[in-house]
Amino acid sequence: GVPFPIAVTAAPTPLDLQEYTRLTALQPYLNLVLDNLSKDVETMTHYLDPVAEYDPFVKGFLDIYKGLPGEHHQRVTLGLSRHDFMFDISVSSEEVPQLKLVEFNLVAASLGALGEGVFDYHQTVLRKNCVDTGKHNHRVDIVKGINQPENYVLKPQREGGGNNIWEDEMRKKLISLSGDPARAQYILMRRIRAPTGRNKIIRRGVMSDTVDTVSE
What residues pair up with 11 in beta bridges, in sequence order? Predict the structure, then answer.
């Protein structure tokens, strides 16, 4: 058959049912918050204008947003988004890691359509394997990021972790941005300590050796 279009793990990541249930109950409220926020022009422009001044990517979207008609220009709207979560073991005193929201995507939201295909793919591989084997606050946060760079990550308004700035490089970046309004284009986030799991990765129909993986 045709290889699956993206890299997938050979087996699904185990997920604690209680955490999953908590998350699915919370998700509609997150959606509602984002929907209401998107309609609050004053708040959106207040927080995004400083970012757009130094980030042309954000400015492009903000210009489109400001150019939209008023709130009641259509009766029905559809919000298509993808929320990414990761397990975090640094905040959990129990054995079960907590799921933490990493980001919500309004541009790169297309992967949801592949979810059913990933499920079917896992079922096929698992069957095969069974046969084969076995501001003040801002200043405080910046100081924490400089003094404890191992606990934070500096993230620009971009999709994907490849744009993130880590550890000593992040510390130097924060120092260089001290007092610079251009720092508005970055978000300083507490670093998530995700547990690793052993799995195989399938790319274009070829299965790797067993490796350490992190689920998002």
Answer: none
Q: What is the pTM of this model?
A: 0.75
User: Taking Cα atoms as reference points, which of 181, 179, 187 lies closest to residue 53?
Assistant: 181
Q: What are phi and psi of 57, to 5 degrees?
A: -65, -50
Task: Please name the residues in contact with 111: beta carbons below 8 A apart, sequence gap of 6 or more.
Answer: 6, 82
DSSP state of 111: G
pLDDT at site 199: 93
Structure tokens at 185: 């284009």
d(CA 109, CA 23): 19
* The two structure tokens encoding residue 20: 């999953």
The confidence score (pLDDT) of residue 91 equals 63
The predicted model gives 192-212 an average pLDDT of 90
Distance CA 46, CA 172 (A): 28
Identity of the amino acid at 101: L
